[in-house]
UniProtKB/TrEMBL annotation:
Transmembrane segments: none annotated. It comes from Streptomyces millisiae. This is DUF4442 domain-containing protein. InterPro entries: DUF4442, HotDog_dom_sf. It comes from the Bacteria. It holds the Pfam family DUF4442.
Length: 160
């Protein structure tokens, strides 16, 4: 007798690792992903270090942006047939020197229901995701906000 259990759907982290080359390149680790919060970790990797021996600013930016993208997929992935999620703007501040592995904790800045209500009303909603980047001792080394939008897909063109 064979096991007829269907294969589990891939997690958001597995999906992003399979489709976004930078996620694989930086070996980002998805520790938690929900529609309201995502926690990603960037391991300590000398090949992505800066002149101080900590993670390069570009690697930290990618970590934080990837955490925001994970929330977007978790919260709005079921809307992909009618809207494309796109980052509009990102602002990052580097607060302290980062050394060793760093973790990004991202939080959705608006209720998903409000975003979807705007989309349902035919508008192009925007919503912020805030991210704290911390080192192992808990010190915040960076703060980032990514403003995302759900761009409605063009309606199908009627042949008539």
């Amino acid at each position: 007798m064979t096991d007829a259990t269907p294969a589990a759907e891939p997690s958001v982290g597995e999906l992003l690792a399979a489709t976004v080359p930078m996620v694989r390149t930086l070996n980002l680790q998805y520790e938690e992903v929900t529609p309201e919060r995502a926690v990603l970790r960037l391991p300590d990797q000398p090949e992505f270090a800066n002149h101080l021996g900590g993670p390069h600013a570009g690697a930290m930016f990618t970590l934080a942006e990837s955490a925001s993208g994970a929330i977007v997929l978790a919260a709005f992935g079921d809307q992909l047939s009618r809207a494309v999620p796109l980052p509009v703007r990102a602002d990052i501040a580097f607060k302290k020197v980062a050394r060793g592995p760093v973790t990004a904790v991202a939080t959705l800045g608006r209720p998903a229901a409000d975003v979807l209500a705007e989309l349902d009303a035919g508008r192009r909603p925007e919503f912020p995701i805030t991210i704290d980047i911390t080192r192992e001792d808990g010190a915040v080394t960076g703060e980032m906000t990514v403003l995302w939008t759900l761009r409605p897909n063009d309606p199908p063109v009627d042949g008539g």
